[in-house]
Specification:
The protein is 35% helix and 15% strand. It is an alpha+beta fold. The chain starts with a strand and ends with a helix.
Length: 233
């Protein structure tokens, strides 16, 4: 007898319901493989996102048995519970349909955190040499591999409690820029992250660090922002 997975998938918008599908179990099967099977063989109207399938883009992130994960890198054998899966859209973000969420709020908070590069030189200037051994560059490099997947945002209890909170990803990016000696907006950025909903709102639960697929530690970055923002007050 072929093994069958019992897969509950969120359908509809914020007021939707779970729908159960029976999916054939396969060797080395990922959660994304399961969702793709449902869309191709059981219900073509199922909405979800994916792109690279190899853990590079982060677009396939969703809640898997209550935990935010990249589904392309999550093997069913490791995350299923007795042959069952419960799949839902990322937490703390508005649901568009089924497993897709609206990321607008996530990226608007990047803007509020001034989490973008402000050049201190023009293209006419010589390229600045940055030593990889400086403390600032080391701190920036430790946090720079974020790919904006939203897993940390979905995992964050503070985001759940406080809709104004900028969130781990935006603050982590702000920290990399504070440590970039080529950037010209350090004071402006520190003022932005010290405002309502900024770095001081973080409760240091470290859910972001626990669930980050890139093994980053946004809590550490936020702690650095707290110290830096306090120093310029």
């Amino acid at each position: 007898m072929k093994k069958i997975l019992q897969v509950s998938i969120w359908r509809g918008g914020a007021d939707g319901v779970y729908q159960v599908f029976e999916v054939p179990a396969q060797a080395s099967q990922t959660v994304l493989d399961v969702v793709t099977w449902v869309q191709r063989h059981a219900d073509a109207t199922l909405a979800y996102r994916f792109s690279c399938r190899v853990g590079m883009c982060g677009s396939c992130a969703m809640m898997v048995n209550g935990i935010p994960r990249w589904t392309c890198r999550s093997h069913v054998a490791k995350v299923s519970k007795g042959g069952t899966l419960k799949l839902a859209p990322l937490a703390n973000l508005p649901v568009i349909k089924d497993l897709t969420v609206d990321m607008s709020r996530f990226f608007e908070k990047w803007k509020r955190a001034e989490a973008r590069f402000y050049p201190s030189a023009s293209r006419k200037d010589d390229v600045m040499s940055v030593s990889p051994g400086t403390s600032g560059r080391i701190d920036a490099d430790a946090a720079i591999e974020c790919i904006n997947c939203g897993v940390c945002y979905a995992a964050c209890d503070t985001v759940k409690w406080d809709s104004d909170y900028l969130g781990p990803a935006a603050l982590n990016r702000a920290w990399t820029l504070v440590n970039d000696e080529r950037d010209a907006a350090g004071a402006k950025r520190l003022q932005a992250v010290a405002n309502r909903g900024g770095c001081y709102t973080c409760h240091s639960h470290q859910s972001c660090q626990i669930h980050c697929p890139k093994a980053l530690n946004p809590t550490r970055s936020i702690a650095g922002l707290k110290r830096a923002a306090l120093a310029v007050r």
